[in-house]
Structure formats: C-alpha cells, structure tokens
Amino acid sequence: MKFLLFILLSIFLVALPAFRIGGTVELRGIVKNECGYPVDNIIISIWKDSTKIDEVKSNYKGVYAYTLPEDGEYDIKVGINNRYYYLLQDSNIDILPIQIFRRDFVLQINRQELQHKTTRLNEACRHLVLNPKNVPYRGIFFSRFPSTLDEFLLFFSPLVPYDNLKKEGKSVIGKYYGFKLVSDTAYFSKYIEVNKAYIPEVDMKLFKDFSKGIIDLIAKNKEGFVGTLSYYNNQEVKSTFTNLLKEMPKDSTKGFINKLQYMDARIYTIADETSSEQKKK
C-alpha cells in the first residue's frame, strides 16, 4: 500500500508543472513614452517562432495584459499603429513558467513625425489668422488639432525634448476656440476624446486653457454636451469630469451638476461622485 502511494505521489509531482493555473502565463506591463507619460491604445503584438500569436492594446493608463498559452521564448512588437513613436521590437524574451510575467516598455518619440504634424497645425492656424472667413481653413485647423490625450501631450507638453508647440500652445488653443471652427458637438467630441484617457499624472497648465474654452461652450449648450457625453462609458465620462470640474468656477459647479440629473441620470451620478472626490482632496 505504501509503495502504491509512493508511485502515485511520484507521478503527481512529475506532472505538477502541467497543472499550473490554467497552464498559462499572464504577460502584463505598462507602456510609457520617454517623457514618462502612459501611452493609451497602443498595439502590443506577440510573436512566437516568427508567427504572430495575437495582439492587445494598452488602456488609458498604458497598462496591457495578455494570457499566453504557455511559457517559452517570445518576440514582442510595440507601437505598430502609431506613427508618433518608433516601433519597439523586443526579441527572444524568455517568458518564465510563472503566473504573472511583467514586461514594461518605453517608446521613443519619432521627432521628425512630431515636428511635421505640429508644423502643419501651426501653418493651419496662421492661414486662418490671415483668412478668417475661409471656411475650408477652419475645417483644416480643427482636423489637425490633437484628437487624443497622447497627441495633445506630444504637441504641447514642456516635457517633450523635441520641437513641438509648447511655446505657442496658449495662442493656438485660444484661436482654436476663438475662431469657432465647427459645431458645438464637434468641439465636445474632440474635448471628450482627448480627456477620456485623462489621469492626474499627466496634468499640465495648457489643460486649463483647453478646459476653460469648452466650459464657455457648455454654458451655452448643456444639452449638446450631455448628449455627446452619453455615448461614452463610465470611465471615460469620469475622466472627462475629472479635468473639467477642476477648471469650472466653484460658484457654478453645483448648479451645473444639479441640472445634469434632469438630463441624464448616469452622467449626473458620475459628475456628482467626481465632484465629491475632488472636494475631499
């Protein structure tokens, strides 16, 4: 009997590695750029033996996670979908047979692409100043203005060590609102798209100007703003309010939030919770 138990125990111990949780390893990490900002919505593609296994995108905090079918040697490529960064290739990574294997990535900014895009935005701004009634110029200026948080930071952040619009930022944002380029809804959409991935770690002064301009539009068209915001999920709505409420005049914040409860209960709840959290800090 003891001999039989010994044999069974030996078989179990030999087979134990195969019974690792799900027989899988979770690959997890954070993608940031060289300025230390998390990079949202960046593709991380995973390869094994020159064959692409799958791909996953980073979230608004730059975090990604993917469950590998097994440990072993893998190649990873980061940033294939973003021209603002040089493609990062990390080859022959030996993924250990553990439950979680962490791998962080730092992307280098493509300074030529950044300079090209910021120059084009600045040119559109100058053309509009010289031709303020030119309707096509309005559309061009609006389309070239940053449409994501990552792009906004690359264009305006003083932490970027390359040529961007950190010196002209305040003027560009002022003209962005001052010329009334497009409809209120289009302004609301772009503001939300930039702010939906907002986290306090990426705060900078030009966010204040960006938010103050949209606050003036919201005051005239609350229904349009709430209607646009209603298409976004809870986290995106919360991120938008995190930045917006910080710049909204204190004497008008309560009244603004109270009106939301008659427009959209979900958005009202998120705005009220965000406001309460900010008061506690």
Please explain how this structure is put together.
With 281 residues, this protein is α/β, with parallel strands linked by helices. The protein is built from 11 helices and 8 strands. It has helices spanning 2-15, 111-130, 135-144, 149-156, 169-178, 184-195, 206-220, 222-229, 234-247, 250-260, 265-280; strands spanning 25-33, 43-48, 51-57, 63-68, 72-78, 88-95, 100-102, 105-107. Strands 1, 4, 7 and 8 form a 4-stranded mixed β-sheet that branches. Strands 3-2-5-6 form a 4-stranded antiparallel β-sheet, with no helix packed on it. α6 (184-195) runs antiparallel to α7 and α10 runs antiparallel to α11. It is globular, with a radius of gyration of 24 Å. The termini are far apart. 28% of the residues are buried. The model is unreliable at 2-22 (pLDDT under 50).
Outline the secondary-structure elements.
Blueprint: H1 2-15, E1 25-33, E2 43-48, E3 51-57, E4 63-68, E5 72-78, E6 88-95, E7 100-102, E8 105-107, H2 111-130, H3 135-144, H4 149-156, H5 169-178, H6 184-195, H7 206-220, H8 222-229, H9 234-247, H10 250-260, H11 265-280
Parallel strand pairs: 1-7, 1-8
Antiparallel strand pairs: 1-4, 2-3, 2-5, 5-6
Helix pairs in contact: 2-3, 5-7, 6-7, 6-8, 6-9, 7-8, 7-9, 9-11, 10-11
How would you describe this structure in keywords?
globular, four-stranded mixed beta sheet, alpha/beta, 281 residues, 11 helices
**What order do the SSEs take from the amino end to the carboxyl end, as H and E?**
HEEEEEEEEHHHHHHHHHH
The number of strands is 8
Find the structural class using helix and strand composition.
alpha/beta
Major beta sheet summary: 4 strands, mixed
The gyration radius over C-alpha positions equals 24 Å
Q: What is the helix content?
A: 40-55%
Tell me what portion of residues adopts beta-strand conformation: 15-25%
Our measurement of the CA-to-CA distance between the termini, rounded to an integer number of angstroms, reads: 67 Å
